[in-house]
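Provenance and format

Records in this collection were gathered into a single text stream. Each protein contributes a sequence line and a C-alpha cell line. The two records reproduced below are adjacent in the stream.
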Amino acid sequence: MIGAVTSGRLADILGRKMTMRFAAVVGIFGWLTVYFAKDAIMLYAGRVLLGYCTGVLSYVVPVFISEIAPKGIRGGLATSNQLFICSGCSAAYIIGALVSWRSLVLVGLVPCAVLLLGLFFIPESPRWLANIGKEREFHASLQEFRGEDSDISEEATEIKDYIESIRRLPKARFQDLFQSKNMYAVTVGVGLMIFQQLGGINALGFYTSYIFSSAGFSGKIGTTLIGVIQIPITFFGALLMDRSGRRALLLVSSSGTFLGCFLTGLSFYFKLSESTRVCSQTTK
C-alpha cells in the first residue's frame, strides 16, 4: 500500500523509467534478502521490500503503458499488463511445485533483472517529457515509439493540447472525491477493489497447496493445475474485454467467484463438522 501511495509522486518527479528502475532495484534487494534469510526477521524484511516494489510497479507500469501506446491498441496493451501478472503467478505455482523455495526466489530475481536492464533500451514516456517541458526529448521519444518513418506531428499536437487543457483545470484535491457528483464513480471503483480483496483471493492463493491437501489431493498437482488453467482463462478474458464489455465480464466472474468461495467454505464446514463428530464419538 505504501508503494502504491508514493509511486504517483515518484513517477511525476523522477519520471516513469527512473521509478521503474528504482522499483526493480528494491525488488532485487528484496529477493536477495529472502534468499539469504537466516531467521523470520530477514524473511519479513525481504517481504516488505518486495511489497513496496510491487506497490510502486502496480501504479507506474499501467501509466507507462497507456502513455506510450497508440490510441488504437491502448486498451489491449493495458489489458496485457494484467495478463502477464496472472501468467507470472501461474508460473510461480508451476515452478514452485518442482523446486525448493530458495530456488524459486532465484527465479523471482529474473524479471527484476530483465526489467532493470531492458529499461536502458527504451525511451522515456513522451507524455511525461512533454509535461515537464522537454520538447526535443518529447519528439525524439514519440518518434522512436512510432517508428522513424511515421508522421507524429498530429499526435504530438494532440498530446500537447491535452496537457495544456489539464493544466488549465483547477488543481484537484483529495476532498473532491467526496463531492456528490463524484461519489457514484468513487463508490463503484473503490467498492470493486474492496470486494475483490474481501473475496479472499490472497488467502486462497497463499493456501492453495493446503486446501488441496485438506481435500485429499496432492498439493503440488493442485497448484500446478491452478497455474495451467489460470493462464488461458486470463487470456480469454483479455480477448473479450473490448467485445463483451467490462460490466458483463464482471457479472460473470463475480458469479463464478461467489460459487467457488461458497463451495470451498461449504467443504471446510463439512470437514469441521465431521472432525467434531469423530472427536465426540472418540471421547464417549
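Adjacent record:
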Amino acid sequence: MTGTDMPVPTCCAASRSGAGKRTGKGDMTAILLNILGGLGLFLVAMQMMTDGLRAFAAGELRRFLRNWSGSRWRSVATGALITALVQSSGAVTVAVIGFVNAGILSLSQALGIVFGANIGTTVTAWLVAAAGFDWSISRLALPFIAAGAGLRLMVDDERWRGLATALVGFGLFFLGLAFLKQGFGEIQAGIRLADLRLGGAGGILAMLLAGFAVTVLMQSSSASIALIITAASAGVVTLPLAAAAVIGANVGTTSTAALAAIGATSSARRVAAGHIIFNLMTGIIALALLPLMLWAVRRTEDVLGLGSSPAIALALFHTAFNILGVALLLPFLDRMAQILGRLFHRAEEDLATPRYLDRTLLATASLALSALFMELARMRGIAADLALSALHGSARSVRTLLARTRAVESLGDTIREYALKVSTGTMGRSEAQRIAGVLRIVRYLEEGSRLGPRAFSLRRQVSRLSEGRARRALEAAIVSASSVLEDVAAYQEGKEESVAALRRRLAEFEAAYQSAKEALLEAGAAHRLEISELDRLLDDLSRSRRMVEQFAKSVLAEARLKENGHQPGTGAAAREEEAAVSQARREARAARR
C-alpha cells in the first residue's frame, strides 16, 4: 500500500489474497458489505452536497429559477444548470412545483426546467467518470474533507457553513467511490461473466429492470448510476448491459416525483406527470436506438481521444440520450402543457376559475364593473357555502375547507387584478369609489373564508361536549350563525328588505353568541369544563363570530355601494360597516337586559 492509497479493510485484504480463486461465501459476504458501505457513503455524500449547496446559494438559485425561465430553451438551460450545481433533480422539481403553485412559473416553463434537470443530473456520471478508475480515487477524498471541516470550524455564517458541508460531501463522494471500486474489483476477480448468462434481449431487459428497481429502492438515480458505472469499469457487466441499466435508472428516478404527487395539488401532479412522460419517452427512444447510440459513443470517444473507458462511455451515453430526448420532445412542450393542464382537475380549481370577467369588457368601465359585481356575487356564494359546511360539520375535513379557502383566495386575486385593470382606464369619481368598494368586499370574504376551519373545529367540539347547558347554548349560536350566512348567500342587490333582515339576524346571532359565552364561563367556573377545553371553545366561538361578521359586512358594503351608484370614501365606508356590526352588538346587549 502506498502513502496515497486508502487503507484496505481487513475483510477485503483477505479476499485479495485469493484474487485468482473462486470467491467463497464468507469472502463474498465481506465484499458485499464493502460495496454496501461504499454505497451508503455515496448516498450520504450526495445528500450533504445537495443540502450544503442549497444552504450556500438557495436565494440566488431561486431568483435565477424565477427570472431566467422565459423561453423554452432558457427553461431547459436553467433546469440543467441549477441541477448540475445542487446535484439533485428532486430538489429542483420540488422548487419548480412551489413556483407553479404560486403562479410564478407557467406549466410549460416548469416542464422545460424539468426537462433540463434530466440533463443536469448527468453531471454525477461525469464526476464518477472523471474520478478515473486507473488511479487512486482516494487522493481526491481527504483534501476535500479537510478543507470542508476546516472551513466549518472557522466560520459561523450559515451560508459558508453550507459550503463547508458541500465540500465534506464532495470528499465523501470520492471516498464512497473508492470503496465501490474496491468491492467490484473483488467481485470481478471471483466471477466469470459467462456464468451469468446475461446476453441478448433477455439480458438487456433484466438489466433495465435492475436499474429501475435499484433507483426506486434508493430514491437516487445518481447513486444507482454510480453503482452501474463502477461495476462496468470493474468488468462485472458489459457496456451494453450497463447502458440498459442506466436507462432503467433514468426511468426509475420518476418514482420520486410520483410519490411526491400523491395527495398533492393539481399543479404538482401535472409537473410530476410531465416528468414521468419525458423520462419514459426518453427511455423508450434510448432503448430502441441502443446499438446505434453505443456505436456513436465509441466513435465520439475515438474522435475526441477519450480512450475506451467504460465509465466515460456510460457518462457520454447518459448525457446523449437525455439531450436527444429534449431535442425530440421540446417542440411539443406547449402542447404537452395544454394536455396536462386539462388533467387532474379538482372541484376547487373550477370554483377558482372566473365566469364573468371578460377582457373585452375592460374598454368600457360600466360593463367591466357589471362583470365584477357578478363575479363578486359568485365569490360570496362560494365563500358562504364554505362557512355553512364548516358550521354544519358537513365538510369532509379541515383539509377540504383549506382547499376551498385557497379557491376563494385565488378567485379574489383574479377579481382584484381585473378591478385594477378597470381602474387604469378613464372613469369618473363614482366608478373609482366602486372599484375601491369591490376590493374591500373581496377582503371581507377572504378573511371570513380563512376562519372556516375554526368554525369547523367549534362544530366538532360541540358534538363531543357533555355539559348540557353549554352545549345547548352553543348549538343555538351555531344555528343563528347559519341563518346569517344563509342570508348572505341569498342576498340580491337592490332589495332593501334583504339588508334589513340581515341586520336583524346579526343582532339575534350576537345575543346567541353572548348566551353561549356566558354558559361556557359558568361551566368553567363550576369546574364542569376543563380549563384547556374552555379556552379552545371560547377561542373557536370568538373566531366563528368574527367569520360571521366579516360575511355580514361584505353584504352591508355591497348594499351601500349600490345606493345612488356611489359610496363614501373608503375609510368612511369601512367605519360605517364596523358601526353596523357594533350596533348589532349593542342591540343584543340591550335585549339581554
